[in-house]
Amino acid sequence: TAQVNVTVSLSSDTDVNSEQASDVAIITIVGPVDKWFAVGFGTDSMCLQPEADECPGGGPYAIVVNSNGQAGVEERKLDFHGPGRVLQSSINIESSSVTNGNLTVVLSRSLQGKSSDHYSFDPAVSSFPIIIARGCSTEFARHCGHGPSSM
Length: 151
Prior knowledge:
With 151 residues, the chain is mostly beta strands. It is built from no helices and ten strands.
C-alpha cells in the first residue's frame, strides 16, 4: 500500500541586514508517483468546524499533488467530503524528484495564508492536526486511502 508522508519546517526569522521578516514554510510531501496525493491542514477530519451533523464552514485548506511522473501542485479549499475549489496559488515548487516509485515535492510558501481560505502556519504552535489522502489514479477524484495525523 502506497503511503503519503509530509514534513513541514517553519521559519520566522528577521534578517539583521535588511530588517525584513522571512516567514516561510517549507513543505515536503512524498507519495506514489502513479496516484494523486494530498495533505489538509488544521483539522483531523473533512470538516473544519463541525456543528452537530452539519459542516457550515466546509473542509480544510489542502495541497494536492497530481503526479503522473511530474509535480502538478494545487491549493484547494475542500468541501465537506468533496473536492472543493482551486485557490489562487501561494506556493513555489522548490524541487520535484522520483525515487523508487515515490514522488517527492518540496514546496515553499509564506506562513501567513494568502486568503482566509489558505491555512496560516503559526511557528509558536508545537503541533497541529492534518489529514492525508491518496487517490486511486493520477486524476484528482475520490480517495482510495486517507487518515488523520498531526505535525
